Amino acid sequence: MAFTVITCSGVSNTGKLTAQTGAMLLRCSCGMIEACIAATRPTASLEAFVRHADRILVLDGCGDCCGRKKLQALGVEPHLHIVATDCGIAKNGMAEPRFDEIERLSAAVMDAIRG
After folding, report:
1. Which residues contact 53 (CB under 8 A, 6 or more apart)?
2. What is the mean pLDDT of residues 84-104?
3. Helix (H, G, I), strand (E, B) or coil at 9
4. What integer is the mean pLDDT of 62-74?
5. Mapping DSSP to helix (H, G, I), strand (E, B) and coil, where does residue 51 land?
6. Using alpha carbons only, how large is the chain's radius of gyration in Å?
7. 81 HSE (CA, 13 A, CB side)
8. Which of 1, 16, 22, 61 reaches 20 to 30 Å from 89, CA-CA?
9. Is the pLDDT of residue 29 over 90?
């Protein structure tokens, strides 16, 4: 079964990192990721996606866990939850994510999916 990835997609470097990582995984996961949706979407739109998802992975940028909180407000618990800062990526303001950070977070997601 494929995962739908919900990204926090915030304005900080780690929030932007989740969106860029999700987009890369959608292209490169060999079908393991079926959709990548920003948690910042309107609630009704997000709810429609998660209600039809096989499995849900929330990719949050930091310990604020905005993506997971948005799903929980809909009464949905993700199957997997990954936080970029827990993967050794520093939250440092509005900087653009680096390619090595995208690679690191992508590897953590794929390891969790393969579990």
Report:
1. 3, 4, 34, 35
2. 96
3. coil
4. 96
5. helix
6. 13
7. 16
8. 1
9. no
Rounded-to-integer distance, Cα 102 and Cα 36, Å: 15
Q: What does 78-93 look like in DSSP terms, one character per residue?
A: -SEEEEGGGGTPPP-T
Say how far apart CA 96 and CA 54 lie, in whole Å: 32
Helix 13-28 and helix 99-114, axial crossing angle in degrees, nearest 10? 60
DSSP secondary structure letter of residue 83? E
Structure tokens at 93: 């303001």
Beta strands (DSSP E) in the chain are 3-7, 33-38, 55-60, 80-83
Q: Is the pTM of this model over 0.85?
A: yes
pLDDT at 85 over 90: yes
